[in-house]
Amino acid sequence: MTWHxxxxxxxxxxxxxxxxxxEPARNTGLLTLMDTAGRLGWWTEPDGRVTGVLVxxxxxxPTFGTVTPEAARALASLPGPFxxxxxxxxxxxxxxxxxxxxxxxxxxxxxxxxxxxxxxxLTPPDPAPAGRARVATAADVxxxxxxxxxxxxxxxxxxxxxxxxxVTERISDGRLLLWEEDEREGDEREGGEREGGGGRSxxxxxxxxxxxxxxxxxxxxxxxxxRGRGYAAGVTTAATRAARDAGAAQVLLFTDLANPxxxxxxxxxxxxxxxxxxxVAFTGR
Length: 285
Fold this sequence. Notes:
Strand content: 25-35%
Oligomer: single chain
Radius of gyration: 20 Å
């Protein structure tokens, strides 16, 4: 049993393709990052089967895919696979992350606890919220970038300087949707903005490119003044349908376990729990 590492995505795909095809949902984060990661790793059993995978998208910040606690503990004992600074932040399924963190003997803090959901049978909200979904356009970039920044702040992370490129890519690909109130309704209340459409934009959601037959809904955000009216349910339903129309056999999303509202919402829409995830930050050596 051993870990192997490469910086070549083609080599990695050849080694781990069977595992990724068998477990695409549990490896969703890795699938998103693997083509731009600086380092990729896989764990082999004595019979040669690959049963663990990871990517390092930023120095010292690996993301686990499918990794057993045994493989995680073995990784923690290796001398320097993540450079001189070692691991500073680790993300992945809870059991594997905890096994690695405890095996290092270093102090660490849990910074996020998430739950991965997979769509079963889509159940749109009934009654539907007022308004309709539309695909965002270039005119919506400033609004979507501002909302992306607020989303990051809402989940307890420090927002970056500018999300223009981030949302522009998704809008250019047709993967960012807005929920838009009727113009008359928007005139009667605040909480949204008019950008590319005729009504008032009150919520947004994105979906990722289809990889291994799956897409992930993400960046679901409604500004505080527009919450409580079902807009997030409406735009999430629209993004889910768009992901399926793009060819996704499985549609996934992550929720913050500290947010019972979103966890309940997505289950009402037909999403079902798959596994829990943990992010930890190491606070010393």
